[in-house]
């Protein structure tokens, strides 16, 4: 074989060359026009050449063949020249609609984007200051996500983190934990620490670190922060009275709790009941990771087949609430070594579903088993259905939802025979249905679903989606129906 013989197939080389040209175009749309692009829910923002090709290949589940970069590139190239306003664009759907239209690219796009053409990134509205109250596992992942959105396409701006000072080198330790993560890997970018000003600068964004143990005494306006939306990820207060302390601080406007809220507080699972959020809501809960993982799937199944009753068993990664070695714990069983034991414990997630999906009130029971893995959990959902189905029909319905349904941002679907929990670390979906594990018994009236969820990262993405809704971020989605 000659030394200069091609290693890659011509088809791959062509895809790679176009994807390389597409990267800066997608970046321009994002940074200059606030246009967020995706392929069937898979974001193309900040993605490299291989990720773009993989996203196109993902479309085979709808097209029965990979979506070609040659098909989407002319659309992206033309969009850059249209000076678009803020929008979300699903390139796979746009390409399909363009093909069906029979029009040339520019004529089709002129009609499709008529409402945002020439608006030069307008549509997001005023930026929203965001404060993270607490900087633990969820807090740091929220910071990573918010920082990744800082370049465009989002009105959220991370301005500050509030924590209690533990040591003299507290700031250095906080920055180090943001920079390095044993589960989710290194921070994608640069971090600089200014100890004199108590500021962490991450990818050019200055984050003020405020030390306080009393939320009522913080004056955010001292740092130029106005009408902040505070995300409380400490779990210290879970009712309106406790969380209202944040609103007594100077410079705050709204509060989001990253835990199940008590009392009459709205518990929001984005995509399911997020339309219930109004401008008047000042304190809202984003529910729990498990509630977010199962509720979207339950909604689809209930809408399609009707749920008579069911049981949810969660196989959950251990958390900081447990002990590394056997020691006293106020909760039953959680005092036993987390890394050595499966620990049977309680979960309120099944009952909490009813706060987001009232039609299932009183129909679900639940329990949890904490297992010796640090991240990614699984929910086993055992349902008695009103309408009979089959494994093939049920899986097809959930797969379709994951690709083109209204809950495609929340529900994922996988049918690989080799996947295990670590394959879902970093998944931004609330839950991912494992199609090969689906069971249907009792003449089609009993369905058992297995749903994976990254209880840290997937949940954090749901939280950010709720924050965007509370901030009034509502941009048009294309293609239109």
Structure described in brief:
By secondary structure, the protein is α/β, with parallel strands linked by helices.
The CATH H-level superfamily of the largest domain is Dihydrodipicolinate Reductase, domain 2
Q: N-to-C terminal Cα separation, in Å?
A: 52 Å
**Which spans of ≥5 residues are poorly predicted at pLDDT below 50?**
none
- Mean pLDDT, to the nearest integer, reads 94
Overall strand count = 21
The level-1 CATH class of the largest domain: Alpha Beta
- Rg value: 23 Å
- The appropriate CATH architecture of the largest domain is 2-Layer Sandwich
CATH fold call of the largest domain: Dihydrodipicolinate Reductase, domain 2
The domain tally reads: 3
Secondary-structure content class: alpha/beta
Question: How much helical structure, as a percent, in the residues?
Answer: 25-40%
* Strand fraction: 15-25%
**How many helices?**
13
Largest sheet, order of strands side by side? 6-7-8-5-4-9-10-12-11
Biggest sheet character: 9 strands, mixed
Shape assignment: globular
Topology:
Elements: H1 10-33, E1 35-39, E2 42-43, H2 49-58, H3 60-63, H4 69-80, E3 87-90, H5 91-101, H6 105-112, E4 128-133, H7 137-148, E5 156-163, H8 170-179, E6 191-194, E7 199-202, E8 205-211, E9 228-232, H9 240-247, E10 252-257, E11 266-267, E12 283-285, H10 289-305, E13 307-317, E14 343-345, H11 349-356, E15 364-371, E16 377-385, H12 391-404, E17 411-414, E18 431-434, E19 439-441, E20 446-453, H13 457-470, E21 477-478
Parallel strand pairs: 1-3, 3-21, 4-5, 4-9, 5-8, 9-10, 10-12, 11-12, 13-15, 17-18
Antiparallel strand pairs: 1-2, 6-7, 7-8, 13-16, 14-15, 16-20, 18-20, 19-20
Helix pairs in contact: 1-2, 1-4, 4-5, 7-13, 10-11, 10-13
Enzyme class: oxidoreductase
Protein name: Glyceraldehyde 3-phosphate dehydrogenase
Keywords: Oxidoreductase
């Amino acid at each position: 074989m000659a030394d200069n013989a091609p290693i890659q197939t011509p088809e791959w080389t062509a895809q790679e060359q176009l994807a390389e040209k597409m990267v800066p175009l997608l970046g321009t749309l994002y940074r200059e026009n606030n246009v967020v692009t995706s392929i069937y829910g898979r974001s193309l923002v900040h993605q490299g050449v291989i990720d773009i090709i993989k996203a196109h290949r993902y479309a085979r589940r709808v097209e029965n063949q990979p979506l070609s970069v040659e098909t989407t590139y002319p659309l992206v190239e033309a969009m850059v020249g249209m000076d678009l306003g803020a929008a979300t664009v699903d390139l796979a759907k746009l390409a399909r609609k363009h093909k069906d239209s029979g029009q040339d690219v520019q004529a089709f796009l002129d009609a499709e984007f008529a409402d945002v053409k020439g608006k030069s990134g307008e549509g997001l509205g005023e930026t929203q200051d965001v404060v993270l109250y607490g900087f633990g596992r969820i807090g740091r992942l929220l910071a990573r996500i918010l920082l990744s959105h800082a370049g465009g396409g989002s009105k959220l701006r991370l301005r500050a983190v509030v924590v209690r000072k533990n040591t003299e080198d507290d700031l250095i330790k906080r920055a180090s934990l943001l920079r390095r993560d044993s589960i989710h890997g290194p921070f994608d970018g640069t971090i600089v620490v200014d100890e004199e000003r108590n500021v962490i600068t991450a990818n050019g964004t200055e984050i003020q670190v405020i030390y306080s143990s009393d939320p009522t005494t913080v004056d955010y306006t001292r740092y130029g922060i106005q009408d902040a939306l505070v995300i409380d990820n400490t779990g210290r207060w879970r009712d309106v009275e406790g969380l209202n302390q944040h609103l007594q601080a100077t410079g705050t406007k709204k509060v989001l709790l990253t835990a199940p809220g008590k009392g009459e507080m709205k518990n929001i699972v984005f995509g399911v009941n997020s339309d219930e959020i109004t401008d008047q809501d000042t304190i809202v809960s984003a529910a729990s990771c498990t509630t977010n993982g199962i509720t979207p799937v339950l909604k689809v199944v209930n809408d399609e087949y009707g749920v008579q009753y069911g049981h949810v068993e969660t196989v959950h990664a251990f958390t900081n609430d447990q002990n590394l070695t056997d020691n006293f714990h106020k909760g039953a069983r959680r005092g036993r070594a987390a890394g050595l034991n499966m620990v049977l414990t309680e979960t309120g997630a099944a009952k909490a579903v009813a706060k987001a999906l009232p039609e299932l009130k009183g129909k679900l029971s639940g329990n949890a088993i904490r297992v010796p893995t640090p991240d990614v959990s699984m929910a086993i959902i055992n349902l008695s259905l009103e309408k009979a189905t089959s494994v093939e029909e049920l899986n097809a319905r959930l797969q379709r939802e994951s690709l083109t349904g209204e809950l495609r941002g929340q529900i994922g679907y996988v049918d690989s025979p080799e996947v295990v929990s670590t394959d879902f670390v970093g998944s931004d979906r609330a839950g991912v249905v494992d199609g090969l594990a689906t069971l249907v018994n009792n003449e089609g009236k009993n369905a058992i679903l297995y749903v994976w969820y990254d209880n840290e990262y997937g949940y954090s993405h749901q939280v950010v989606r709720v924050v965007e809704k509370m901030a009034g971020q509502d941009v048009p989605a294309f293609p239109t129906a």
